[in-house]
Amino acid sequence: MTARGPDFGVALPARVPVAALVEAAREAEALGYAHVWVTDDRLQRDVFTVLAAMATATSRIRLGPGVTNPYSRRPALVATAVATLDELSGGRAVLGLGAGGTNHRALGVRREAPVAALRESIGLIRDLLAGKEVNLEGRVIRADAARLDFEPLRSSLPIYLGARGPRMLELAGELADGAIVGNVAAPDGWRYALGHVAAGAERAGRDLDSVRTVAWVYCSVDDDDAAALDAVRPMVATSLATSRSVLPDLGLELPVDYARTMDALGWSLEEDAVARAGATIPVETLRFFAVAGNAADCAAALQKLLDRFPRIGHVAIVPAAPRGAGPADVVRRFAAEVMPHVAPAVGVAS
Question: Mind listing the pLDDT tens digit for each residue in 98-157?
């Protein structure tokens, strides 16, 4: 496969005020990013409200949740929300779906049969956008004579599936328009992930090139390498907790001190807990999940990954701002000091 090289996006956690998130989206558009994704974590600012505000402040950049889930948000309402966002943005909406998990305890919901839930959700959402009436008695998802009460701007829009587990990666290859490989910046993790995406596509008789592959990486750019690495620690701590079952598949062991700390904290994903646990994570584990350091090192790490895996079509950075900077600062530094030095990879995907 000859690759054209990736485009770039920004994934913004909704921890900061809406005005700062909107400013980051405006900056991202001006700097040439192709996508802005907004996370749907914990009980942070509402993802679709933030995306709507971004839609009114931008004109070209694509916008979507990265990722929402069918447990905390009913899939029929996800279809309604993304169709509304598409209308508001003039056809720029994309939908990121995944199994979630960071807010389930607070909402009192259980993540049951995630592969079935996502399979059923994708089908239901696509049918609703296409104007169909849906009756579904699935293993997890149910609908009774569901139909959108308005005509969507587009009858279909891209659905990306966020995944790290083998069955979810295979579902992405089988059904989704794109696969978001979550928080993996290391070759061993990517070899495993793409193998499962390919297996799902082959099983469904799909051309693998029809599945767009997204590298979703935590990113911090700072002249002080230690400060950049410290900035991604809480994010990596969260990923380790939510990825425990697939770490062996990724070729990664749970750090002993981290596991001991999280055991004492009851594996809480609250900010104080992941900050404490994150402080124990060794540098090599941080670099498995993140691109962090000075600009030259960040560019080199990304280039190495793209050279090895030219199927990566989109790189979405999750900015982690060191020393009190804001997400827009990371967005600017990455665009000015990293993106120009990442050349399109050419070759055959591993």
Answer: 987 677 777 777 888 999 999 999 999 999 999 999 999 999 999 999 999 999 999 999
Domain range 7-224+290-341, its CATH number among 3.90.1200.10, 3.20.20.30, 3.30.450.40, 1.10.10.200:
3.20.20.30
Indicate the SS3 state at residue 320. Answer: coil
Which whole-number Å values give the CA distances from 210 to 77, 297, 341, in the listed order?
27, 32, 27
In sequence order, the 6+-apart residues with CB closer than 8 A to the CB of 59 are 29, 90
Output phi, psi for 314, to 5 deg: -150, 130
Closest CA to 16 of 329, 283, 236: 329
Calpha distance 322→325 (Å, rounded): 6
Q: What is the pLDDT of residue 347?
A: 42
pLDDT at 84 over 90: yes
The Cα–Cα gap between 249 and 195 comes to: 11
